[in-house]
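Priority: medium. Attachment 1 of 2:
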């Protein structure tokens, strides 16, 4: 009888562990979805997403650089790297601000490091209009292929 009780208890422990593993796997998948996957194709898709956001916000977008953040030689090997993106946009205040909010809401782990905004009045055919430019530096994490 004790043997049956022990086996029943072990079976319940296995079920509990299996459930915990499934829950953990779901959390890992959700976490991984916030990080760019390794490979050039994923980076290209990400850049295309940024360009699409520029069109959505109706700004003139220039991607100045995409650089992997330098690791110190003492740093342990990581499974991911941080990419720094430098962008310039031009548009109305509303358009530039809309673009910035789109960047903030990207479905990735994004950290905005620097934002610069400048506004000027420009005359176009006897009409003055406000033109804003913004420069952004932000960081996004990318898995490193193993």
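Attachment 2 of 2:
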């Amino acid at each position: 009888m004790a043997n049956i009780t022990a086996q029943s208890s072990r079976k319940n422990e296995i079920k509990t562990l299996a459930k915990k593993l499934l829950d953990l796997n779901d959390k890992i998948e959700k976490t991984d979805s916030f990080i760019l996957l390794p490979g050039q194709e994923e980076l290209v898709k990400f850049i295309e997403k940024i360009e699409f956001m520029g069109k959505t916000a109706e700004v003139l977008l220039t991607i100045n650089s995409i650089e992997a953040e330098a690791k110190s030689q003492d740093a342990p090997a990581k499974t991911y790297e941080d990419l720094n993106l430098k962008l310039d946009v031009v548009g109305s205040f509303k358009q530039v601000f809309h673009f910035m909010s789109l960047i903030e809401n990207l479905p990735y782990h994004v950290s905005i490091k620097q934002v610069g905004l400048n506004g000027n009045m420009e005359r176009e055919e006897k009409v003055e209009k406000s033109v804003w430019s913004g420069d952004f530096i932000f960081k996004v994490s990318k898995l490193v292929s193993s």
